[in-house]
Amino acid sequence: MKPSYSIFIFNLLLLQYLSPLCLAQDFDFFYFVQQWPGAYCNSKQHRCCYPKTGRPSADFGIHGLWPNYKDGGYPSNCNSNSAFDRTQISEALSSMQKDWPSLSCPSSDGLRFWSHEWEKHGTCSESELDQKEYFEAAIKLKEKANLLNLLNDAGIEANDEFYSLESIREAIRKGVGFTPGIQCNKDSGGHSQLYQVYLCVDTSGSEFIKCPVLPRGKCSSSIQFPKF
């Protein structure tokens, strides 16, 4: 086999290997997803365990920052060589524990949750954000869109009362500037309750944008905002 032909074959194989990785890291926007702990813990769908650091504050917690495509699809697990590195969040650890708590069982320090979020979602945004930047971006976005304050300012409180789905959407739209996606779950009594809020963010992970596509959520026209 001639050397030039060998080089050609090698380059072709390398291109075939790298192309899926490059495509996997190409995305159109982020979903920034926050969840209400009262709905997580008051549902048949989940067992609820407080973090080892104690009961989280009665506030929305980060679920994740997820790269997404405009057609509604999304990339996942894009780089098996990019493992979660806890040293990358050392400066943001206290904020992570406060703003991004894990409520899954058994009780944990959050590392398993954050590792999952990085390896499934974060690795697909490495073309824009490294690991440190990824987690810091999520923390900043939570501060930027203080959902609980926006709802409280509109008279919508976590008091087990029912509010119209449209009033919740409008309160968040008014505060953030864009219509959110709302996801509900059901409590033990079968009531539809406010569970997760989806906001769309540009590929830099810094600016809220109009959602190219909103996630499908099954919510009643009137939903409960459960206590926590």
TrEMBL record:
Q: Which UniProt keywords apply?
A: Disulfide bond, Endonuclease, Hydrolase, Lyase, Nuclease, Signal
Write one Pfam family the protein is assigned to: Ribonuclease_T2
Q: Which domain of life is it from?
A: Eukaryota
A GO molecular-function annotation: hydrolase activity
User: Which residues belong to the signal peptide in this entry?
Assistant: 1-24
Task: Give start-end ranges for the coiled-coil region(s).
Answer: none
This entry carries the following GO cellular component terms, namely: extracellular region
- Active-site residues annotated for this sequence: H63, E117, H121
* UniProt cross-references to InterPro entries, sorted A to Z: Ribonuclease_T2_eukaryotic, RNase_T2-like, RNase_T2-like_sf, RNase_T2_His_AS_1, RNase_T2_His_AS_2
One GO biological process this protein is involved in is:
RNA catabolic process
Q: Which family does it belong to?
A: Belongs to the RNase T2 family.
Please explain the role this protein plays, according to its UniProt record. Answer: May remobilize phosphate, particularly when cells senesce or when phosphate becomes limiting.
Instruction: Please give the name of this protein.
Output: Ribonuclease 3-like
Species: Cucurbita maxima (Pumpkin)
Tell me the lineage of the source organism: Eukaryota, Viridiplantae, Streptophyta, Embryophyta, Tracheophyta
